Amino acid sequence: xxxxxxxxxxxxxxxxxxxxxxxxxxxxxxxxxxxxxxxxxxxxxxxxxxxxxxxxxxxxxxxxxxxxxxxxxxxxxxxxxxxxxxxxxxxxxxxxxxxxxxxxxxxxxxxxxxxxxxxxxxxxxxxxxxxxxxxxxxxxxxxxxxxxxxxxxxxxxxxxxxxxxxxxxxxxxxxxxxxxxxxxxxxxxxxxxxxxxxxxxxxxxxxxxxxxxxxxxxxxxxxxxxxxxxx
Length: 231
Ligand SMILES: C[S@@+](CC[C@H](N)C(=O)[O-])C[C@H]1O[C@@H](n2cnc3c(N)ncnc32)[C@H](O)[C@@H]1O
Prior knowledge:
Blueprint: H1 5-9, H2 19-34, E1 43-47, H3 55-59, E2 64-68, H4 72-81, E3 88-91, E4 104-110, H5 118-128, E5 132-143, H6 149-164, H7 167-178, H8 181-188, H9 196-205, E6 208-212, E7 224-230
Parallel strand pairs: 1-2, 1-4, 2-3, 4-5
Antiparallel strand pairs: 5-7, 6-7
Helix pairs in contact: 6-7
The chain binds S-adenosylmethionine.
Residues 5-6, 9, 29, 48-50, 69-71, 93, 110-112, 115-116 line the site of S-adenosylmethionine.
């Protein structure tokens, strides 16, 4: 039985209700990441990158793209997919400590914090800080606020599904999710949620100046994105 979020993301799942949903999701995330890349010479780290199906689109807009993924099988798939692309590297979270100090211009962790404990999140922010270049930025995106719950996620999924032509597939996907490991883990382990003030304070304690970005990454505007710069 799957006992952790890390395991959940490393097994086949149906969070994306079909290929169209997966594609629309990753295109949007890639566009949001690209919007934050400072220039074409930048090194970008996508922490908890997931399937990263639009990594080449992001890589085309920067000099180096590091895909960091904790799920072992997924990491293997990414390594094989980008083996012939020297500008794209695939690393494990432990390998962050081996990156040269000051070598990364932008770190994005999109839709990841809810699966980390508060301690893991603070530790991550602390470990990433020396890796950022002068003027480098850390972006925690799609941070889940308390009280949003499943209803907000369902309504966000259905409205983007309606806009992008997979509404009925989304309904089917939701029915599946109701009986899936996702639902059980969400009930048993839950998601880590943050008030805006709390995530900003966590980042400040880790040595950053942090502010909320007016718009969240992705489609769910109940969630938030924060931008942090070493202070
Ligand atoms: C919802 S997916 C997000 C994927 C991608 N960033 C996106 O925007 O679609 C969550 C990601 O968090 C990663 N994750 C889950 N638990 C983790 C942990 N304890 N440490 C690091 N990453 C974790 C998963 O492997 C998964 O890739």
